[in-house]
Every structure is written in C-alpha cells, then in structure tokens.
Automatic annotation (TrEMBL):
Belongs to the type III pantothenate kinase family. CDD domains: ASKHA_NBD_PanK-III (cd24015). The lineage of its organism: Bacteria, Pseudomonadati, Pseudomonadota, Betaproteobacteria, Burkholderiales. Its EC number is 2.7.1.33. ATP binds at D8, I9, G10, N11, T12, R13, L14, K15, T141. GO terms for cellular component: cytoplasm. GO terms for biological process: coenzyme A biosynthetic process. The keyword Kinase applies. This is Type III pantothenate kinase. The gene is coaX.
Length: 273
C-alpha cells in the first residue's frame, strides 16, 4: 500500500486530498476524501497560513510515498507548494501537465501541452469512474465543458468565464451594474429578470446552462451522445439547483461530483508509479 497526497491548484483555490493506493478509485462515497481540504490562493500566499496548512497536513498523515499536483495558476504557487513540507525529507513530487500521457485516454487537442492540466486530470478522473460518453463540466474560476467519448477520446471542449467572473466583469466594465447578489428564492431564475439583480444572475446562469445544452446537442451531432454529465467545481451546487428548474436540462443525466481533478491525479499516479 502506498500513500499519495494530491494537489489541484486552480485560479481561485488550492484543493488537496490524501488517498491510499488500495482504495477504490471508482468509489463515489464522500468518505473517500476523508483527508482533504482547500485553501484560497490568496490565503496560500501568506507564509503564516502556509505554515499552518503544512502543520495540519503533516500531523494528519504520515509522509506520503508521492505527491502529485497540477497547477493552472501562477508558477510562483508551485514554488510555494514545493516548499510546503520541510519536515519531510526527499519527497517525490510529480507534476501532472496537459501533456502527461495516460493509457486509455487521449486528447484531440492540437497541442496537448496547452490543454489545462486540470481539464486533462478531470477527464482522467471521469474515465476512472466510467467508460461512457461523458461531458465533464468544471464550474470553477472558468467554466470548462469537455467531451470524453466512451472510447477514451477527448474531443475537445469549451472555456467560458465562470459564474463569478461573468458577474464581476459586468460590474467592473459597466457604469451602472452592481455586483449581483444571488437571491435565496431560486425560482426567480426561471423567469425573465424584473430587477437588475435577477437580470444579471438569471442571465449568467442561462449562459452557463445554454452552453451545457449546446454541448449535449453537439455531442449527438458528432455521434457521441452524452450518457453522463459530471458537474464539478466551486459553482456546481448553484448550477445543479438551477438546472433542476429546467425540464429540458433536468432530464439529462447530470450528477454533481467533487474532486474529479484530484481523482485524475490519483489515477495517473497509480498508472505511473
Ligand atoms: N469557499 C469558496 N471560496 C472560493 N470560491 C468559491 C467558494 N465557494 C464557491 N466559490 C465559487 O467557486 C469558484 C472557484 O471554484 P473552484 O472550483 O475552486 O475554482 P478553481 O479550480 O478555478 O480554483 C469561485 O469563482 C466562486 O465562484
Ligand atoms: C481553462 C482554465 C483557465 C480553467 O482554470 P480554472 O477555472 O480551473 O482555474 C485552465 O484549464 C487553463 O488555464 N487552461 C489552459 C488553456 C486550455 O485548456 O486550452
């Protein structure tokens, strides 16, 4: 049995988890991520908070046999990550990138090295869960929508501004729009907005859901009809709730999930160590 520590550094948050090589990688039980957590990139810039995180992780688990990580944030974050555990000597750090090979999955991206490492890891994580035609939707800083065929081929995908980014860009690039606050009465989104707040949140939600729907139609057009949609990332719960209100989308095989990127890093370590 080997112990792995995996880190997913996104543009907003750093997520981590510890897993044992003997655990079932297809397990969807939340307990799978018993040792896991996240910290905002902003907090991770603070030496004091990094020391706290390091202390917490190193007291929670023994020295791991390997640490797998991927990063789509600034490269300085990688330096901070790699200096996190001075208490553990000779750590085996493995960086996963968009061009890291993984047996059983290949991408049609023209330059795989340019594919976001987190998108590629999420696709591998999805593959570890099932061999069906799958749409991988990651609703983080950006929203990414990727099609993975049951044959293990990544047909490419789309990148949209994430929900917060959409709303923030309206505020920062207009004279009259505020930063919208999501109403707790979600039914408001299922109609045309009758105030600025509803108009913004409803519009941004509709853009995200419209892209998912368009991807489902396109997958059918290219003869890889979607059999499963994984919804991951910081805005997955919001979007899943919105989706339930739209019969056309609610009928789709959509499931919220956590940690697809971390799962992909784990699968990659299993295959390469
Ligand atoms: N506790 C949180 N901290 C930061 N962002 C959050 C939180 N909860 C929800 N969000 C939303 O999730 C997004 C970040 O999601 P995440 O999947 O961590 O992104 P990334 O992988 O790009 O870092 C933010 O843009 C924000 O809209
Ligand atoms: C699209 C992304 C910004 C998403 O990042 P995230 O929202 O997870 O922080 C990231 O995957 C990235 O920088 N990709 C590189 C370009 C590409 O995938 O084509």
């Amino acid at each position: 049995m080997s112990l792995y520590l995996v880190f997913d550094i996104g543009n907003t948050r750093l997520k981590w988890a510890a897993v044992e090589s003997t655990q079932n990688i297809a397990d969807r039980n939340k307990k799978l991520w018993a040792y896991s957590g996240s910290i905002s990139n902003q907090s991770f810039q603070s030496p004091e908070l990094r020391a706290e995180l390091s202390d917490y992780i190193s007291k929670t688990m023994p020295k791991p046999d390997a640490i797998g990580f991927c990063c789509v944030a600034a490269s300085a974050t990688i330096d901070n990550l790699r200096s996190l555990f001075p208490q553990w000597q000779n750590l085996d750090w493995k960086q996963f990138t968009g061009s890291s090979p993984y047996e059983g999955v290949r991408t049609l991206y023209e330059e795989p090295g340019k594919l976001g490492a987190d998108r590629w890891a999420a696709l591998i994580g999805a593959r570890a869960l099932s061999n069906t035609n799958t749409l991988v939707v990651n609703t983080g800083t950006a929203t990414t929508i990727d099609l993975l065929g049951g044959n293990g081929v990544h047909y490419g995908g789309w990148i949209l501004p994430g929900l917060s980014l959409m709303q923030e860009s309206l505020q920062s690039n207009t004279a009259q729009l505020p930063l919208a606050i999501r109403s707790s009465t979600l039914a408001a989104q299922a109609k045309f907005g009758t105030n600025t707040n509803e108009a913004i949140t409803g519009g941004c939600d509709a853009a995200q859901m419209g892209a998912i729907l368009r991807a489902v139609y396109l997958a059918k057009e290219i003869h890889h009809p979607v059999e499963r949609i994984w919804l991951d990332g910081g805005n997955a719960k919001i979007l899943a709730t919105e989706i339930k209100q739209f019969p056309e989308l609610a009928a789709l095989p959509i499931e919220p999930i956590e940690g697809l990127v971390l799962r992909g890093l784990w699968a990659w370590l299993l295959q390469n160590l």
